[in-house]
Design brief:
Order of helices and strands: EHEHEHEHEHEHEHEHHHHHHHHHH
Distance between the termini: 27 Å
CATH architecture of the largest domain: 3-Layer(aba) Sandwich
Number of domains: 2
Shape: globular
Bound molecules: 1,4-dihydronicotinamide adenine dinucleotide, 1,3-dihydroxyacetonephosphate
CATH superfamily of the largest domain: NAD(P)-binding Rossmann-like Domain
Number of strands: 8
Number of helices: 17
């Protein structure tokens, strides 16, 4: 049995708390919000964000960061990406040398273009940081629906320890050493999922969805490989796998926001209606800035930026995508693949 602190009590934090408790661990959940902690203490259920998933009576909930960070074998950082830096900064003085921290959020910081594990390592240099990502909606994980996911770590022993901690009959965990590739896939798939939702909102069909998924992963892989990620990661669970689920699922907040925008809502209206975090809105800017930095062509991400931040109608963005220069399929990806990086473990 491990002692685990979950930092962040939204839908994903609560679903992972449920899973890790069922795996035989002692779990304490922290939230910055007093009312959220009161609700969890009183109801043992997150009524707003994960209704129907009953958390056990012995699970503890707190707003005291010091008590959740102390004496834990593992800390799971589950706050949305805009709060990763501030939360890690508050945690830093409480964290012992070598503390294992698992980041489960998906995003890129737009002001620095850093991934979330890079931010955590910068704020808490004494920590041993890993990432957990893949096609895994909290609503399904919280019901014990079979799910597969990947833990990414620099050290093989840490990856294998986490694999053992999270793995269950209904939650199959793979390991990978490609932390960067995992994090880029996780953040950028949300931008493409916004586009997929917009296509749904515009009333387009399955052909359009398949095109966005396939061309979307080509775009993510092109950028990710240029930055040092590995091609097999982008065509694995944390790349194409998570992109498929987010573009297709009725649970996806990014897809839901996209549908609203496709129907004519502004970005702010869509975010307000969805209520939970819409990470793609934050990662869209960062993804486009990274593409410019690495001189990579990302037409879908570019059009999503125009829709979100320049008020371009979604239908016009689709026309611009359809009428781009004529191309050979994936010729640049093939060239990048030949230069793919070595695998450390
Ligand atoms: N919900 C899902 O199915 C999955 C979510 N994720 C990722 O996990 C991360 C968290 O997402 P969710 O739990 O779904 O979000 P959510 O919208 O359900 O919950 C957000 C939670 O963040 C916390 N919070 C709010 N303001 C804060 C602040 N200023 N500082 C610190 N914490 C604050 C609160 O506990 C709040 O309930 C996101 O990056 C998301 O992409 C990853 C896989 C699955
Ligand atoms: O990352 C997710 C599933 O793997 C959750 O996606 P949404 O944030 O779009 O709901």
């Amino acid at each position: 049995m491990a002692k685990i602190g979950i930092i962040g009590a939204g839908s994903w934090g609560c679903a992972l708390a449920w899973l890790l408790h069922n795996n035989g661990n002692q779990v304490t959940v922290w939230s910055i919000m007093e009312d959220e902690v009161s609700m969890l203490k009183n109801c043992h259920e997150h009524k707003d964000k994960l209704p129907g998933v009953i958390l056990p009576k012995e699970m503890e909930f707190t707003t005291d960061l010091e008590s959740v960070a102390a004496d834990k074998d593992v800390l799971v950082l589950a706050v949305p990406s805009p709060f990763t830096r501030s939360t890690a900064g508050k945690m830093a003085p409480l964290i012992k040398e070598g503390q294992k921290i698992v980041n489960v959020a998906k995003g890129i910081e737009d002001s620095t273009l850093m991934t979330l594990s890079e931010i955590i390592e910068q704020e808490i240099p004494q920590a041993d940081v890993v990432v957990l990502s893949g096609p895994s909606h909290a609503e399904e994980v919280g019901k014990g629906i079979p799910t597969t996911i990947v833990v990414g770590a620099k050290r093989k022993d840490t990856a294998e320890y986490m694999q053992g901690l999270f793995m269950s009959q209904v939650f199959r965990v793979y390991t990978s050493s490609d932390v960067l590739g995992i994090e880029l896939g996780a953040a950028l798939k949300n931008v493409v999922a916004l586009a997929a939702g917009m296509a749904d909102g515009l009333g387009y069909g399955d052909n359009t969805k398949a095109a966005l998924i396939t061309r979307g992963i080509a775009e993510i892989a092109r950028l990710g490989i240029s930055m040092g990620g590995r091609i097999e990661t982008f065509y694995g669970l944390t790349g194409i796998g998570d992109l498929i689920v987010t573009c297709a699922s009725m649970h996806s907040r990014n897809r839901k926001a996209g549908i609203l925008i496709g129907k004519g809502a502004t970005m702010e209206e869509a975010m307000n209606q969805v209520k939970m975090v819409v990470e793609g809105v934050y990662s869209a800017k960062a993804g486009y800035a990274l593409a410019q930095k690495y001189q990579v062509n990302v037409p879908i991400i570019e059009q999503v930026n125009k829709i979100l931040f320049e008020g371009m109608p979604a239908a016009q963005a689709v026309s611009e995508l359809m009428l781009r220069d004529k191309k050979v399929e994936n010729i640049d990806l093939r060239q990048l693949y030949q230069n793919s990086v070595e695998i450390p473990w």
